[in-house]
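for the writeup, i need someone to sanity check this before i put it in the appendix. the sequnce is what the collaborator sent (i think, or maybe the updated version? ugh). structure was predicted straight from it, no edits. if anything looks off just tell me and ill rerun, i have time this weekend
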Amino acid sequence: MVNKRQYTFSKEERLSWKRHIDLLFEKGLSFVAFPLRVVYLPLEEKADTPVSILISVSKKKFKRAVKRNLIKRQIRETYRTQKYGLTDSLVEKEKSMFVAFLYLDKEIHSFSAMEKAMGKALKILHKKE
């Protein structure tokens, strides 16, 4: 029987502990895959999930919550469909990683542009794990 992948994004994959978030921004490394700034922190020990992510869109740039939520939904969806390239290699190496995706631009990009940016970001993360 072929193992079918479930392209899900569960609650466990969200980075929500303040202590972990503070650690990520204090000790993490970053790069830009426009329109995303990616902050990441590779962890040596194995966590519950291989990758825990946080998504942030600036309230200063997007006053309306509807627009912020649209962008967060786009980022979450593109991550959900492309995450297995990164998570599979982390599971093999028994490592884990905290990642934050911060939206930089002042305009909303199309879904295809977001997919390209996410693909680029995940490739860079895969190299840096």
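The chain has a mean pLDDT of 90. Residues 65-82 form the longest helix (18 residues).
thx in advance!!
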